[in-house]
Amino acid sequence: MNFKIIFKSSFILVIFFLSSCFSKEISVVINSSHNNFCEGTVFTFINNTKKFGIEFFIKDILTVELTKNGYILKDPSIVKSFFTPEERIRYFENPEIALSPELIQRLGSILGLKWIIGGKILEAEKIGDYVKIELLIWVKETKEGRLIWYSYYERDSDSYRTILHFGKISDLYSLVDKMVKKDIIKDLKKVLICKRKL
Amino acid sequence: MIKKWLKILFFTIFFILIFKIAYTQIVIFPFEDLSKGDHGINFEIPEEIAQKLSEEGFKVIPPKEVIPLLIKFRKVDFYNINFTLLREIYKNFNAQYILLGSIGKLQKEPPAISIIVKLIDVFTGKITWGKSVSFSAEDFVSFLSLKKIDYSYMMEKVYKTLLADFKEPFESISKITPTIDIQEVVFNSRYLQPGKTVECIVRMVFSGPKPSFIGVEIEDNIGKRLIPLNKYTNERSYIAFWKAPEKEGRYPVVLVVTWGDKWKITKRIFIGRYYVDNTPPNLNLVIRGAKKKKGKVLVKDVLEIIPKVIGSSISKKFIGRGNGIAKWQIEIYSKNENTLILKESYPGELPKFLTWYTKGGMNTLSPGDYLIKFKVWDLAGNQNEVEKEVLLVTDPPTPQVIVYEGKEKDFMEIEINKNFIPLVRVYLEIFSKDGEKIAEIKKEGKPFDRIKKEIILDKKKIKNLNSLYYNAIIEDELRNKKILRRVSVIVKKAKEGPIRPTFKTWVDEF
Question: Could you give the ipTM of this predicted complex?
């Protein structure tokens, strides 16, 4: 009997450790009282790399894919037009600090947004046919301006390869496109629960 | 009865058709082209999309027709929108949607593209439809590479994929409310003393009918009140004045715009805040490297002043929020000469430190007592001043080496007078004309105040007292160092009578 329990427990432990080893991202979910996360916006990601433009592309692709999945999104440029001139400058200079809980709450109440998505591109490189991207993505709710979820993603040319060279990606934008459509949206849907009939 | 229902049906269809003709236009903006760097624009793809959509029966306004309006609104980019622009789009083109696009990558050989398009509702600013397409060379790899793919083939595939599920959502439109776009908000100062006048200038653009009231809502000790905004220099700028409240704190300012008549709308937009501050900045002056001795602040050859503002209990809430220093002033007085030797004032934040090399060129300061006065003004105009007295000691004392010439014996007296700063090192050597060392004094370690030594000289050996000289290194506790080379010994005639008692060893009196 005991042997069986020990065997079962060790089997579960082994499976747990193996799954941890193969996992490519770290996600953290912070419980929130909100559960009707239908409306929101995606802000341009902070780009810590030299690859200009990828930050706008991620923002746009996330916006479009979330819309396709039934979420109601406001264009971020419209949301930013509700910043005060002072806040605009602060956001331009330091987007991480400028997006204070107070500002998030205000945007939420004016525009009816329930969440704001943002993030940071940590690495984006292309060496020959090899491409790699590393990014952090976060979701903040607008009721209190708190962080409710964040995750780290790391993908490269071979992340979506199937057999032989099929599915191998040699272009950064294609990699971002795949990553958003296949993984990020799936994870976001678990966090942004929208009760509205889609 | 049937006739009546047929009539209703006819009018319903008629109104739906009229409604569709009147409102379902799509304005296509030039696309943002990130592959061309910052502010890159693409006209070809949106023009082609416009063509394809109109072939499908959609009513579209191509990018080139939109540009004059965007220029009128001074839009330097074609992808950042706001409600005023959306309203103008509706007003000028009778359009319900705008189509924005962004190109991440565009390459002809080998063909590759990454493109995103989104359809935005001009009434709500919401994205109602969107699509992204990403093709790279790998996506067109055919079996054994039998089929060569070129750019035009790829683009056809792009348009087909992009517009495959293009749908134009139709919603009932009752009215589009007037909008306001705030372009600039300027306060005469964000930080004020109680009772001072707050001036707030707002530059804004309206789309729609003129508002019946424009003002700012403020809250102070009197309560919540509305201050009207009056026209300022041009038709876009408005100004309002009011007195800052007595109580210290931060006060929000909300723009209130009302449209009367049929609209009956009031829009309230937070435009900023100002701070009432009556607490002078808490200033502290630190003299770096100084030593405190017997109640005096001692400084050696470099005078380094570090001014710092520290938050007091009242003004703490402003620190870090930008209530910085508007102006500062330094004055240095020589107490010995009773004169002002420096007075400088500068606008802006406090310097991290101020350094005066007291031994260098034109700025040389003679040793003595100095008074440093430092004044600061914060952004609200509150002033504070601190003073600090320092004693500048740039050199250790010079030793006195005297030879008394007697009839029978000569003796030498070496003395370093009591100094305000204790000495930590003395090394003194006395030489004859031929370079022969006659005597030596060496002491270092614990600080000492004074040295006195008497040596009896051998008359047979030293015949010419006038040719004696000494070398010395003297260092005080502040690490001021004096190096003396080949300094002549002073020769004096000894007084008649018995010679003074001599000391075989040197004596420290303290």
Answer: 0.71
